[in-house]
Specification:
By secondary structure, the chain is of the alpha+beta class. It is built from 6 helices and 12 strands. The structure holds biotin.
Length: 263
């Protein structure tokens, strides 16, 4: 573990404080939430070599085998009103794409709302959770990227849709370099979002592969076929159903799948 920490430190430089690397944790999001309750500062980063209870969106789990993936959470205490926090997972997705491009040149895309995709396979995901504090609230943004998994390292139905960066990009990827790049991109985007709020929304839209596709909109009660039309200012997905009605679906409420597969 010390080696992973030292490698990250070498890439990150000395300026960046408040980042922690653990061997095994239940979930970096949970660790980060506990730290938030104990008063950890804005920007605190938690990275782990392995998660035993990695958490995914909509109550799913996130497979987090030892040594194979990047499991990272960052704590933010945004000054902006809570209504604007809806955009934070999308911001995380843009940061992750930028980090992947920087470290290995692979042109990752985003499947709405914030799955990371490379050549039609899921290589990562993002889970944002809020923390209620006595004096306000904070947000924990958790990002998981499959770095070195082979197909057989994934279990169950995940095997049919997931892949690792190394397998898809066809090159070896340094997990510590990716971790450092991700921290830097998150820090940079956090600053950029305050000064140029439209810029990364445009980048999100450019990278989002869902728009223009025929999709299935999945809720606990129904699966409906629709065309994905656009991503709005608050990162809702505008869709047109087969009966012609147009609606905007929200990340916390639905999953979206392609008609014939994951994307
Ligand atoms: C998803 O694909 O549904 C989101 C997956 C998010 C996984 C990351 S790994 C780091 C952080 N800790 C967690 O328990 N989950 C997120």
């Amino acid at each position: 573990m010390e080696q992973y920490r030292q490698q990250i430190a070498a890439f990150l430089g000395q300026e960046r404080e408040n980042w922690h690397v653990f061997d095994t944790v239940d979930s970096t999001n949970l660790v980060c939430k506990r730290m938030a309750l104990d008063g950890a500062p804005d920007g605190t980063v938690v990275i782990a070599d392995e998660q035993t209870a990695g958490r995914g969106r909509l109550g799913r789990s996130f497979q987090s085998a030892r040594g194979l993936g990047l499991y990272l959470s960052i704590l933010w205490r945004p000054e902006t009103p809570v209504e604007k926090w809806m955009a934070l997972p999308a911001l995380g997705a843009v940061a992750a794409v930028r980090a992947v491009v920087r470290v290995c040149g692979a042109q990752a895309q985003i499947k709405w709302p914030n799955d990371l995709v490379l050549q039609g396979r899921k290589i990562g995901g993002i889970l944002t959770e809020s923390v209620l504090l006595g004096c306000g609230a904070a947000v924990v943004l958790g990002i998981g990227i499959n770095v070195s998994h082979r197909t057989e390292d994934f279990e169950g139905e995940v095997r049919g849709m997931a892949a690792s960066l190394e397998t898809v990009a066809g090159q070896s990827v340094c997990r510590a370099a990716l971790a450092a790049a991700l921290v830097e991109e998150l820090d940079a985007l956090r600053r950029e979002a305050l000064t140029q709020p439209q810029r990364w929304l445009e980048e999100y839209r450019r990278r989002c592969l869902t728009v223009g596709r025929e999709v299935q909109v999945i809720t606990p009660d129904a699966v409906r076929r629709a065309e994905a039309l656009a991503v709005d200012e608050t990162f809702g997905l505008q869709v047109r159903y087969e009966d012609g009605s147009v609606d905007t679906v929200r990340a916390g409420e639905v999953s979206v799948r392609g008609l014939y597969g994951y994307v």
